[in-house]
Design brief:
The protein is mainly α. The chain is built from 5 helices and 2 strands. A hairpin with a 4-residue loop joins strand 1 and strand 2. The two termini are 30 Å apart.
Amino acid sequence: MKQDKEVWLRGEHFAGITQLLQPVAHALLQASEELAIIMQNFNDELLWAKPAGCASPGFHLLHISGVLDRLLTYAEGNMLTGDQLAYLKKETEIQDLSSSDLEDRCQRQIKITLDRLKNFIPDMLTHPRPVGRAALPSTVIGLCTHAAEHTMRHIGQLMVTVKVLNYQPAS
């Protein structure tokens, strides 16, 4: 259900999440709300379609779930597990899951991510964090912010892809 105002304009404060990460929480909650609207009455036969060679809705749903988990793992100062690396490899494969299964997975991962944000206190947000095997430089706040930004980027792509797939020209 569409709200009158976007999450960041509602004045909500998410208990247990530092003020400095509230914009991250707002973006993730906005993504959650938009995801529910985008996937409403989605036809599963279109889940793996790639209009004009774009990524499929199934990919976007798998990727959002996986990338949130991976980026928060790095923010927590950990390396990816074998299971996380295996998930990453399977994000581009057609899976035997329905769109509602994949949407539920995304919604669950957003909630888990919001809970994980509660573990970051202001003093640690500028702590350096290596990313990936190459140990590329980032920080806790950089990874949390990118998790929200990357999620919203894929929500936008998902929205356009679903609209294109559902487009029925007027006759």
